[in-house]
Design a protein that fits this description.
It is globular, with a radius of gyration of 20 Å. A hairpin with a 2-residue loop joins strand 2 (38-47) and strand 3 (50-58). 32% of the residues lie in helices and 30% in strands. The two termini are 34 Å apart. The chain is of the alpha/beta class.
């Protein structure tokens, strides 16, 4: 029984049937780990000589599986991304098995939701407190670069909210504007 609905899209690339078929057949390797329907979003893109594949699988319990790889060949990028996703799942398998003894099978739906995980095995070993200076996102990026960090928490002077800027793998910057739901 298939549990995964696969959505393949492209940026700066026409998705051929061969690329779509390869992504779908490779994702079937991990389909058996899901006990309920999930959507897998596969995004293939081309930037200069980089062939990038990103796979995102949001689960109902708030867990988000995501992997991204880039090489100079789209087929290799697909392989490496699937391998990375599979390793993420295998890495969690032992923890899931320990936490869910007695279940008839170890499936993705048995991963605890975010609140349960916080009560479980994850342990915060250090807490930092620091003043959050109001600034615009551009100044926050400058501060982050001056400190040599990959992210920087700041008070956004435009929105009066706490935001985070971070350096992306592609060399650009991202801005996280949290919302509580």
């Amino acid at each position: 029984m298939k549990f995964m609905r696969i959505i393949v899209s492209g940026k700066n690339i026409d998705i051929t049937d061969a690329l779509r078929d390869m992504a779908e057949s490779k994702l079937e390797r991990i389909d058996k780990l899901f006990g309920s329907e999930v959507d897998a979003q596969v995004t293939m893109s081309v930037e200069k000589n980089r062939q990038i594949v990103e796979i995102t699988i949001p689960l109902k319990n708030g867990v988000l599986l995501r992997a991204e790889e880039s090489t100079n060949d789209m087929y290799t990028s697909i392989d490496k991304t699937i391998d990375k996703l599979h390793k993420q799942l295998e890495k969690q398998k032992t923890r899931i098995e320990r936490q869910y003894r007695g279940h008839e099978s170890i499936r993705i739906e048995n991963i605890p939701d975010v609140e349960e995980a916080e009560k479980g095995e994850f342990k915060i070993v250090k807490t930092k407190r620091f003043p959050v200076k109001p600034m615009d996102p551009e100044e926050a990026v400058l501060q982050m670069e001056l400190l040599g960090h990959s992210f920087f928490v700041f008070g956004n002077s435009e929105s009066d909210e706490v935001n985070v800027v971070y350096k992306r793998k592609d060399g650009n910057y991202g801005l996280i504007e949290p919302t509580i739901y």
